[in-house]
Amino acid sequence: MSVKNAAADVLAAVSVMTHAQNACARLNPMNAPMTLHQLQQRADMIDKIIRARSKLQQLRNRAAALEDALTRFKARREAKCA
């Protein structure tokens, strides 16, 4: 790693940290009550996360089923050729 690259990496890291610090400063405290709009946004986000997890699990199950089917197909094909 050259000195020029290291300096650029440090500047990039400092920039990210500054951005994160500014974003965190704008957050509401945890003990502050949420508005109705904020509660609705939170509920929508939770619903989307639950739906995404469910769809991801369905994809995993389907991928496993397809892999099993492919294995059975290859075994039958090899048995026919033998």
Looking at this protein, list some descriptive labels.
mainly alpha, 84% helix, flat
Number of helices: 2
Helix percent reads over 70%
Shape estimate: flat
Return residue spans where pLDDT drops below 50 for at least 5 consecutive residues: none
Strand count, sense and barrel status of the largest sheet are: none
Number of strands: 0
Computed structural class: mainly alpha
List the domain count as a whole number. 1
N-to-C CA distance = 57 Å
Hey, roughly how much beta strand do the residues contain? under 5%
**Rg result:** 26 Å
Mean pLDDT equals 88
Series of H and E elements: HH
Topology of helices and strands:
Blueprint (H helix, E strand, L loop, with lengths): L2 H23 L10 H46 L1
Briefly characterize the structure:
Helix content is 84%, strand content 0%. With 82 residues, it is an all-alpha fold.
Note down, in words, how this protein is organized.
By secondary structure, the protein is mainly α. The protein has one domain (3-81). The protein has helices spanning 3-25, 36-81. It is flat, with a radius of gyration of 26 Å. The N and C termini lie far apart (57 Å).
